[in-house]
Amino acid sequence: MNLSTEDPLDRHRFPLDEWALVEHEFDANSQGLVETLFATGNGYLGLRGNLEESRDGYMYGTFINGFHETWPIRHAEDAFGFAQVGQTIVNVPDAKIIRLFVDDEPLVISEADLLSYSRVLSFKDGVLTRELDWRTPSGKHVRIRSHRLVSFTDRHYMLLDYEVEMVDRGASILLSSQIINRQDGGDEFQRGKKETEVAFDPRKAESFTDRVLQSRIAREEGLRSMLAYRTTHSGMTIAVAADHDIVTDNEWDATTRVDADFAETAFRVRAEPGMPVRIIKHVAYHTSKSVPTRELADRADRTLDRMREIPVEDVYTWQREWLDDFWDRSDIIIHGHPVYQQATRWNLFQLAQATARTDGGGIAAKGVSGSGYGGHYFWDTEVYVLPFLSYTAPNVARNALRFRHQMLDAARQRAHEMNQKGALFPWRTINGLESSAYYAAGTAQYHIDADISHALMQYVSATGDDELLAQGAIDILVETARLWADLGFWRTGGDDHFHIHGVTGPDEYTTVVNDNLYTNVMAKANLRAAYTACERLRETDPASFERLTMRLHLAEEELVEWAAAAEAMYLPFDEKLGIHPQDAQFLEKELWDLENTPPSQRPLLLHFHPLVIYRFQVLKQADVVLALLLQGNEFTPEQKRKDFEYYDALTTGDSSLSAVVQSIIAAEVGYADLAEHYFSTALFVDIANLHHNTSDGIHIASTGGIWSALVYGFGGMRDHGGKITFDPRLPADWPRLEFRLTLRGSRIRVALEQDSMTFTAETGSGAEVFVRGRRVAIAPGEPTTVKLCAVQELEGYPTLSDIEGSIREDGSVITASIPTISVDHAVLDAGLD
User: Fold this and answer.
1) I need a labelling partner for 728 at 20 to 30 A (CA). Which of 77, 173, 564, 571 fits?
2) What is the pLDDT of residues 85-114, one digit of tens each?
3) What are the strands of the beta sheet with 725-726, ordered from one edge?
């Protein structure tokens, strides 16, 4: 296995900057990638990193979180309970366009004679800046600067600041500021052919064949234009408006015209050399599930009226101040590794752009950076993004959980459709209804119920926000516990365990199985959390408990049933191998020959029928290994090591969700080099386009996983049962790692070095944590330092050939025989009280 952690980027084109992503060359053939990497957004509104001139693009995308169209799912062979209505994010009217003509010659970057070119996405300023020098066909020198931001402080607002200067000779300049509705609402209409695509890829969004946005308003007034629409089927409404300021000492005039799908404000300028022309374009987007477009148009007008009263310099200042606060809470500093540092901050910045102003909405798998996965919300939010939010931006985490709570009625209805009690949250959705047409890798992933409950309890533990539960979020715990109690069963014949059959775990290369380990251990935690939360509410707030019992018709015997089912939950374990089978039949399958599967046949899902994949021991992503992270207190250190060794050799990494989890557990069980390798792989999933689909949007779950890989992996933090513990595993060549956690209102700075760990309460009253079993009280004032001793690393990482070393006596099924690698646990305990 290649454990290289070399810099994967071309540093001539993308020079290193720890606080920015910088591009120094334009490449027309990689626009899909850079449009994603340089996207700007705030969680509500997202702009692809297209050039302002709107040429040479791959996907001219502007997306609004949750703004979608619906369409009927046509199953070749239908059955009861199949999802019936699909949902796909809409590519909304694009207002980031300013086309430039100099002496009637258009600026087309891919054809232009560029004297210089640079583009910078600043993580500190939240601004995308581009500067270029163009020599026109007639030899005139033109300098162009543009600044683009999507506001973190005003969720409906974006700013485009575009400046043109004739350097050596004057010219006639036309600046055409446009809003374009590309009619079909998808991205296929716009997509060029500059990047390789496969004929089938379920990760992409569905494309529309009919018109999506029906025009309702098209008007102009002065330098302001307005377009408003209603979606054809979902009935959602949108208004987009643009207004302009021009700053120049040159002579100019302007006209505005609009029609149903196009708005233009054109500035004609007689530009003299050394006299810049600056166009400041203010844009507002407003959307609704059903509000009439005329009301949204009024809202857009008010947004523009308010923002135009503010000096544009203040808009930049507010953006910077918001990010100053974000980095104070969220920055992770990796000393001595600038390549890692830049990529880490890019990933964290993407989390801000995907979540900051969701304001009660969901967090899509691609955020608002592209149309991949149709703009749907998955379990990614709860397992990979919510840990970051719960410990750095609790209010945003609270909003995300309230969003799930608002889906509870639809989840109850879905459970009823599936002949179950309680609530079953949809595997993929935008509006709360299940839209996964392939149930084996969709609806069958019942574990989403437990994932949501896990995230809810993690948030409550991190913040102490019991009020959220009392106000109704506890209903999530009750209804999901009811689902597990009804779905599972007590097998007769002397078996005292509680079983769950016919489900799919996180690994989508193994579907509809019995007793999936991950599902069972998470359901166990879900049942326990529901029982504990109800009993605690009964003790601390009897009135709220009484309202709960009346609201949900909660019976006492249900609580008893949940506790019993949790206690007796079956967790499969193979005594011979000393591992937890991924499911009841997993070890009966043949091993997939991963070592001899060429890269041209990866990922497997794009090259093999599902039935072929399902017959083998092969994983799309960490499954049992994820359970070791989320419910690590259910496993011994030896079990974790053996489980990791077995499943790691079977994991393809075809999912972007896998590497971060593998990194965390590799660090915990002692494979330091492997942990850093997986961390590096995850870190560059998007920046280096390792999964070859970054063009469709950022892998937001992976960006959240980077935070977990650093804090849970190398920082060694765990948060089981409300107890914050640390067992750090800093890579040998990392001198220092720093991160911050918000624990029950106190912001704690953690500084980890090879031989010490220092905690500082920067705000609040402090906190209590445990470092390798030692209690540490963190009080305001002086830092608290804990000395550490070295942890033994493991060598001899097993490969697939090691697993193939044993065959069952009947010769029919290949199983594993992994060499034992011992770890001195006394070393782990050294230095304890």
Assistant:
1) 571
2) 999 999 999 999 999 999 999 999 999 999
3) 717-718, 725-726, 767-771, 774-778
DSSP 8-state assignment for residue 441: G
Instruction: Please count the other Cβ atoms lying within 10 Å of the Cβ belonging to residue 595.
Output: 11
Length of the chain: 833
3-state helix/strand/coil string of 630-699: HCHHHCCHHHHHHHHHHHHCCECCCCCCHHHHHHHHHHHHCCHHHHHHHHHHHHCCCCCCCCCCHHHCCC
pTM of the entire predicted model: 0.94
Characterize the bridge pairing of strands 40-41 and 45-47: antiparallel
% of the chain with per-residue pLDDT over 70: 92
Q: Is 667:644 a contact under the CB 8 Å cutoff?
A: no
295 is catalytic: no
Question: Which of 508, 645, 668, 738 is flagged as catalytic?
Answer: 508
CA distance 30 to 9: 13
3-state SS record for 225-285: EEEEEEECCCCCEEEEEEEEEEEECCEEEEEEEEECCEEEEEEEEEECCCCCEEEEEEEEE
* Minimum mean pLDDT range among 22-26, 31-35, 206-210: 206-210
CB burial of residue 556 (10 Å; 0-12, 13-18, 19+) = exposed
CA dihedral 365, 369, 375, 379 (to 10 degrees): 10
Contact 68, 433 (CB under 8 A): no
Residue 698 has pLDDT above 90, yes or no: yes
d(CA 271, CA 728): 61
Q: Closest Cα to residue 715, out of 735, 737, 733?
A: 737
Residues β-bridged to residue 284? 157, 241
What token pair was written down for 136?
A: 């026109």
Compute how many other C-beta atoms are within 10 angstroms of the C-beta atom of residue 718. 19
Beta strands 141-150 and 128-135 are antiparallel
Hey, what are 342's tokens? 């830049």
Q: Which residues share a beta bridge with 458? A: none
* 8 Å CB contact between 374 and 205: yes
Cβ–Cβ under 8 Å, residues 651 and 582: no
- The DSSP element (H or E) to which 503 belongs, if any, is none
Taking only the tens place, the pLDDT of each residue in 154-192 is 999 999 999 999 999 999 999 999 999 986 544 433 444
Amino acid identity, residue 807? I
Collapsing DSSP states into helix, strand and coil, what is residue 95? Answer: strand
Please, are residues 173 and 277 in contact by the beta-carbon 8 Å criterion? yes
Phi, psi of 387 (to 5 degrees): -55, -45
Q: What angle do CA 19, 21, 22 make, to 5 degrees?
A: 115
Torsions phi, psi for 535 (to 5 deg): -65, -40
Q: Which of 358, 370, 472 is nearest to 91 (CA)?
A: 370
